[in-house]
Amino acid sequence: MSRDAFYITTAIDYVNAEPHMGHAYEKVGADAMARYQRLRGKDVRFTIGTDEHGQKVAESAAALGLEPQQHVDRIAGRFQEAWKQLEISHDDFIRTTQPRHHKSVAELFTRVQSAGDLYLGDYVGWYCKFEETFWPETKLEQGNCPTCNRPVQKITERNWFFKLSKYTEPLKRHFQSNPEFILPVARRQEMMNILEEGLEDLSISRSTFQWGIPFPGHPGHVVYVWFDALINYITSAGFPDDAPSLARYWPADYHVIGKDIAKFHTIIWPAMLLSAGLPLPAHVFIHGFVLTPTGKMSKSLGNVIAPGEMAGKYGADALRYTLLREIAWGQDGVVSEEILVNRYNRDLANDLGNLLHRIGTQIQKHFGGVVPPVAEGSSGPLESELQQASCEASRAAAAGYEAFAFHQALEGAWGLVRAANQYVDRAEPWKWAAGKWGDGLRLETPPAAEQARARLGTVLSVGS
Ligand code: MSP
């Protein structure tokens, strides 16, 4: 990949539910990083999208009396609408039902097959008729379905398998020689433990439902939804036909995902890429979960916050700021309307809004709305201090962004907002505007009108 390119992706969201704050949190974080890299002059490719196959999606469609395609078109539209409301700056919105993705999946299969990594075998699972779901033995609760607690039936299905076990050792080596492959590094050990236990081969075809990508060369079977979904990351980069784009953007710099899907991204996806002879992404960044003050968000508890609604009510910036400022990226954190309102009032209105208001109204009043020039020789120690605060803020913000520590980047930036407010307090532009001494000076004879105006211009210019 060329050095000036930067490819960042988020998980592609399931379309069996409406967009919620957890989805928004991930997209806003990745968006902040994409924007930061663009500011650094990188040629950024930022991909988000929707994961549209699988049994659950088929079931949601059936429950609504819709064809799966109709259903996914509608929900994918809802996601696109929400991201527009949140001003997400993605370059690509990939949908796994798109022909470009089907083609990419077929090509990846050809490669994995040529590597000798596919075979037909018996998948043994526990089937819950009521939930229409297969469970591995490890997920059962006292021998029953973990969702509805009803008895399950042992089912054997002839399926295609991917030789995931073959990649246990290569992955261990990759983890060891790339200690920052999984970020934050605190998450790495958990994945290493899975490798230490040894990997089992993965069943990657399904024949109990049909809403999926047809399994190449095996009518009646569809590709397991995860095996299909992960491939979106290379589809978006141009696989298999757009070689220049692929060379430019692949391997990705960052896959940004939530902690519940870490194994898919740090073990299964890399194994698929190794099998297909493709390079691995540089980093997988695993973020924490957005919780509500009453705990996990869930439809049944009625505490799901719709991000589009919140952005409509308070503005995209207020929501984006709260999501990035309130939670240390990588950890779980709580977001609610009340928290947003507090952040809005305290940080955005009092600190930033107040600064803009103080400076803006005076520029409007005294300089016809045009930022005046800094008068020669009228800068002093107050300006030097602010300049220093500005350098520190920019260093802290950059360090925060580089480390995916958005709360720290914003805290750093707010150092400048606070310093600029103090600067205005101390420089007292309203006094200079009234033809009096500002800057804390208390001299008997008033300053010359020209001097006062020059100083006023400098303060308003520096403050803005
Ligand atoms: N479709 C899969 C991902 C396939 S990627 C090849 C999926 N979809 S999801 O809709 O369930 O989740 C999408 C992303 O949102 C995941 O990264 C998930 O971790 C994240 N979140 C879902 N709920 C969340 C919170 N409450 N908080 C933060 N992120 C969470 O998994």
Q: Termini separation (Å)?
A: 39 Å
* Global geometry: elongated
Radius of gyration, in angstroms, nearest whole number: 28 Å
> What is the CATH domain class of the largest domain?
Alpha Beta
Structural class: alpha/beta
Percent of residues in beta strands: 5-15%
Q: What is the makeup of the main sheet?
A: 7 strands, parallel
Number of helices: 17
Q: How many strand elements?
A: 15
Small molecules in complex: 5'-O-[(L-methionyl)-sulphamoyl]adenosine
| Total number of distinct structural domains | 2
Mean pLDDT: 94
CATH-defined architecture of the largest domain: 3-Layer(aba) Sandwich
CATH topology of the largest domain: Rossmann fold
**Helix amount, in percent?**
40-55%
Question: What's the CATH H-level homologous superfamily of the largest domain?
Answer: HUPs
- Residue ranges: pLDDT <50 for 5 or more in a row? none
